Amino acid sequence: MKVKECMKKSTAVIMAAAMVAGIPMAGMKAEASDDKPFDGVTLKWALTDNAASGEETKAMVELIKEKTGINVEFFISPTAAPGEIDKVLVSLMAGDDIDIIGRTPIQLEEFYRAGVLEPLDELAANVDYDMETVYDGSALKYDDGKTYGLPTERDIWLTYYNKKVFDDAGIPYPEAEGWTWEKYVETAQQLTDTDKGIWGSFIGNDAVHSYMYANQSGVPAYKEDGTSNLDDPAYAESMKWFFSLGNDLKIQPSSVEVASGTYPYNAFMINDNIGMFVCGGWVASTLTTLEKYPRDWQAGILPMPYPEGSEPSSLVIDMCYAVPSTSSNKEAAFEAIKCIAENKYTLGYGRVPAKKLTEEEARAYVEETLVPMFEHDGITADEFMAGWFDSNRNYISEKIAGTADTVISQIITEECLLYGQGGKSLEDTMASIKSRSDDAIAEAQAE
Hints:
By secondary structure, this protein is α/β, with parallel strands linked by helices.
């Protein structure tokens, strides 16, 4: 028998034995077709145990298999504790063979700085895939100009409101047109009734809230020389404005009350005494989980408010998928993340796709998928279009993005809470934020 024939028979025996034993043959292909060149390849997707067992993840794995022929198994990694390095990043730095990871752009920047992300440009060019067009310029790039991630879904902020609180107060539901922060505050003042325990507004104490007004006003977080721009008066005014909502205007719980845990992040969903809530699009999915959050009132949605005199805008954060440099099958991994990025929103979990949709495609998705999901609340297609698919609205990153951005976000969190709870003056707070942020930038540049 010829050597070539022996090898052929041996491979067949190994594959057959593996199939009987149920062992995935990573990197091995079945007879691949032109439309599924990686049919039979097995890839590793890094997830927490909780995420890996989720119904949406299972559905995505099945869809990847259906569309590409690729098998997916999970590389289970625990969530890092606050202040700890990402466990998946640790694994990649140790050289572990992982093919798919999903993170926000800021989270993935840590992986980029560590040199464990594979640039996607050549992989895309090899299959004639125009990332710029498909994702309307939102494919993830860093300061070397290369592309490192495909955006899958967008978490676009909305205004959520309790229709019962409006009805009881005899106030008409707000409208999307001209929905500014000034109109929001005015409406919240009309709704607030402290004698009845009714708050017109609820917004948490996160760092982004302290600078979102400046962010939406178009004030950059960095100067041209690379230092922070957090000494711009707009940031002090934004900080002062936000904390005045609870501490001075008293249209929402004070900073101290929020910090005490009396009003947790899901206070709007679990209570019936909050008129309006401004937060990320993820909240919308909780409105459909009536078993977890039972309620006898209906919710409405509006776009996020924007500063008066500025262009309409909403904050947004993308979820992106990337290929680690340790992947032993980068071409197949790119095919898999393409499949996730292009198709995840079709699974029926209310996702807003990051890929570019025509207005007709967006409306069809809204009418066929989103409207039926929100039948309890009666949210219309036009309301979803205004909140999530308005091509005339600016969508701005909710996070400060740039050198030492993660550290700067933590600095703002620490300092703004001191100010909000009366432990520090506004002037001292902003001076400290500026000084500490510039030190963090200098340290990051020196590395």
